[in-house]
Automatic annotation (TrEMBL):
The keyword Nucleotide-binding does not apply. It comes from the Bacteria. InterPro entries: GntR_C, TF_FadR/GntR_C, Tscrpt_reg_HTH_GntR, WH-like_DNA-bd_sf, WH_DNA-bd_sf. This is HTH gntR-type domain-containing protein. The lineage of its organism: Bacteria, Bacillati, Bacillota, Bacilli, Bacillales. Gene3D superfamilies: GntR ligand-binding domain-like, Winged helix-like DNA-binding domain superfamily/Winged helix DNA-binding domain. One of its GO terms (molecular function) is DNA binding. Residues 8-76 form the HTH gntR-type domain. The keyword Transcription regulation applies. Keywords: DNA-binding, Transcription, Transcription regulation. PANTHER family: TRANSCRIPTIONAL REGULATOR, GNTR FAMILY, UXU OPERON TRANSCRIPTIONAL REGULATOR. SUPFAM superfamilies: GntR ligand-binding domain-like, Winged helix' DNA-binding domain. Pfam families: FCD, GntR.
Length: 242
């Protein structure tokens, strides 16, 4: 029986080859990878599939970006191997899909939270925001757990148990995708401040019970995340709400 021909995206072919080269120690642990331009020349492709493959390797924990520029091969030890992200790589398209789903769910959740939240729920959102602020001030911190807590408290305040279950059921994916997204900003104070300010606007809209503004700022926040990560399904000129 003839097996069907497998058609792979160029970025997936680049990813497979880079994984092989890392495994075979052609790029040994703690070594700096060639630049995007150099890798593009090596593989005979544009920079776009190189960038996409590197993002997947970063999400999978095999490669890390360091302050000052450049991507480095991480040394995998037993502690790393216990992390499911090391084995279950996140493809960038999955991050886009999850963010798209979050845009649908959390925009409405923010609106409902503004209408329905109690003072105790508002205080819980505020505490999560304060914790996120602390993480953003520490430029070495990723802050994904604090980010999830903020969004989770908003969905809880929506008063819709099915929205809450949809978020809690995907908690592992949420946190891994948040880690992947926020890692792009480690060491970048201006970008971290911008993300924090987006959270503040969401909180303030919920505090004053302005459901339209809460939905607007939540959608703006999540669309900006998708644009920054390179989701080509969004036209930045039409969709960016800055």
């Amino acid at each position: 029986m003839i097996s069907p021909i497998e058609r792979k995206k160029v970025s997936e072919q680049v990813l497979d080859e880079l994984k092989r080269m890392i495994k075979d120690k052609e790029f040994p642990p703690n070594s700096k990878l060639p630049s995007e331009n150099e890798l593009a020349g090596m593989f005979g492709v544009s920079r776009s599939p190189i960038r996409e493959a590197l993002r997947v390797l970063q999400a999978g924990g095999m490669v890390e970006s360091r302050q000052g520029g450049g991507s480095y091969v991480r040394e995998v030890n037993l502690a790393n191997m216990l992390d499911p992200v090391t084995f279950d790589f996140i493809h960038i398209d999955q991050v886009y899909d999850l963010l798209e789903m979050r845009t649908v769910v959390e925009t409405e959740a923010a609106s409902f939270a503004a209408m329905r939240r109690s003072e105790d729920e508002l205080e819980a959102i505020r505490k999560a925001l304060d914790l996120f602020a602390e993480k953003m001030e520490d430029e070495t911190s990723v802050g994904s757990e604090a980010d999830f807590a903020f969004h989770h408290e908003i969905v809880k305040a929506s008063g819709n148990r099915f929205l809450l279950q949809s978020v809690e059921g995907l908690r592992g994916l949420y946190e891994r995708a948040l880690t992947f997204s926020l890692k792009q900003n480690v060491g970048l104070a201006r970008k971290r401040q911008q993300i924090y300010e987006e959270h503040v606007k969401i909180y303030e809209a919920i505090e004053r019970q302005d459901e339209k503004a809460a939905a607007y700022y939540m959608k703006r926040h999540l669309l900006n995340a998708r644009i920054k990560l390179g989701d080509k399904r969004i036209n930045p000129l039409n969709e960016s709400m800055d």
